[in-house]
Amino acid sequence: MHNHLIRETSPYLLQHAENPVDWHPWSPEALQLARAQDKPILLSIGYSACHWCHVMAHESFEDADVAAVMNEHFINIKVDREERPDLDQIYQNAHYLLARRSGGWPLTMFLSPDGTPFYSGTYFPKQPRYGLPGFPQLLLQLAQAYKAQRKELAAQGEQLISALAAWQPKPGSDEMTLDASSLASAVQRLKQDCDRVNGGFGDAPKFLHPAELDLLMRQAKAHQDEDARHVALFTLQQMALGGLYDQLGGGFCRYSVDATWDIPHFEKMLYDNGLLLGLYSDAWLNSRDPLFARIVEQTAGWVMREMQSPLGGYYASLDADSDHEEGKFYVWQRNDIRNLLSEAEYAIVKPYYALDSTPNFEHHAWHLRVSRPLSAIAQSLQLDQTQATALLASAQAKLFAAREQRIRPGRDEKILGSWNGLMITGMAKAARVFGRDDWKISAQRAMDFVRATLWQDGKLYATHKDGKTHLNAYLDDHAFLLDAALESMQTEYRETDMQFAVQLAEALLARFEDVENGGFYFTSHDHEALIQRNKSGQDNATPSGNGIAAQGLLRLAELTGDTRYRDAAERCLKLFYPLMQQAASQCCSLNTALGELLQPPSLLVLCGDEKETAAWRAAVSENYVPELMVIALRGDEQGLPEVLSKPKQTSTTAWLCRGTQCLPPITDLNALKAALA
What we know:
Radius of gyration: 26 Å
Number of strands: 20
Low-confidence stretches: none
Strand order of the largest sheet: 1-3-2-4-5
Strand content: 5-15%
Helix content: 40-55%
CATH topology of the largest domain: Glycosyltransferase
CATH class of the largest domain: Mainly Alpha
Oligomer: single chain
Number of domains: 4
Mean pLDDT: 96
Shape: globular
Structural class: alpha+beta
Distance between the termini: 69 Å
CATH architecture of the largest domain: Alpha/alpha barrel
């Protein structure tokens, strides 16, 4: 028996296609069915890597008795939040207003047939526990309330729609002057909120905050702020040493359940790791700490090994669970480790991963995290650093090989435009910083796949799986891929990337911008009408689409000379500026864009012999200089914008411009370094 999800491409929806619940995908037909039968909608939003989504599915959605109640009283709709972030945004906001607390996944919403919510929650157990009602009893209560209290629910719905509308940014005065005060406020607040003992911000659970760390590093460089630099680098160090990071296979999990980064929720998301590849590359330039170089190498290796499709695009995520247990793939019994290793290897690994202390996971198991510096262990064992490093590496290789024999977590193999944009950006930057052609090729393969598959007939689509490309692309798809194209061009200039960047920028302006008030809607002008049309500036797990759109448009304006892109970015920043002043640390990607509007990035164009320009680029990229864009050309490129089109020279030549000021051509590398300094 199958329900209506059987023809979907989303792995998450297909996981529920054989439930006894009569699930529908979100569609006009499902909404019409609710109106025709005058039934409320039960909307369940989740994603395939989500542990608690699996728990609720096993407890309730696979249970015939629970399904019978759902089918009798509701039209049941399942949504993959990764395919429909528009719906997820709206109903997470609605949940916050209804429940007065943040949401999460699974998100469980009860809607009138017109889509207006009247009750919400996240995970509900089958039987009452955790202070939550049992799901079947809740269903019956809500079905009765919908029949008996229609008038009251309609009034509540009107208030909710008004409250959602009130959250949208309002344009400020036309005389508004933008200044850097919100950047300083954001840095000050982040320094106040940071955990000085463990790194990160706030208490448990601990999330990654990539946009915040990026802003801290940029502002630390701009203002020689050693404390801001410390907060960012210390946080990245602690994350890398903890159990949040896969110490054997590379890659980061989504968040830590504790304040010390010990135990994560074990799903690995493409977007986190794309953002962190770029951040750790910048951290290495900032510090030359070999830990950061190792993290980049291992994470890029994991992405290429486990997350890149044969056709080039990057897959979405790895599940938290394997063999129906969260984290089972990653955790160890101490004796299993001891039996795999030599005595000398175990002598290193035992203190390094705290196997000489109490277990830190369920069932007396250990989840690996670095607990003592290798140098201290080497000293205590009277080994030199080279011997200790070799023993640790051989032990890790044995443990990784043994782990590879386990039942693997499920992989969500849909290819999302937005998340591919984030990973292409991270991989391209890492390739440039570390001079890795294999990483550059990985990023270019993904970009070529996205452009060939998701860009069709002058329009971008959001997702591809099993040969099917569908769903209107969102703001984030356009903004993150524009950013990726700009980053890729700095790693290796390709005409196709420049063309794609311009196409994406034009689509942003034509299909998403609110020309009158400024800023970009999350959905395009021709998108399905929903109960709310969001225009959001706050960063979440991923940076704000408005922030990255503004950054990308400003940089593209520098590369092309097209002032329309700069003007649109400025309109966006003026719209969100009141919010940025009120909640500066929640708008870090917008603040980064504001910094680039107030102080436009420098543009360095190199032209000449390919090997020599590569050497020049490596030399000028040895330091962390986030305000510098570097484009290296051979001299035979076609269709260059005027800004990049330089006269042919007999030797390698550099053109350096800061805003509207350009230096004379430079033909000596030392002179170029002096000009940059």
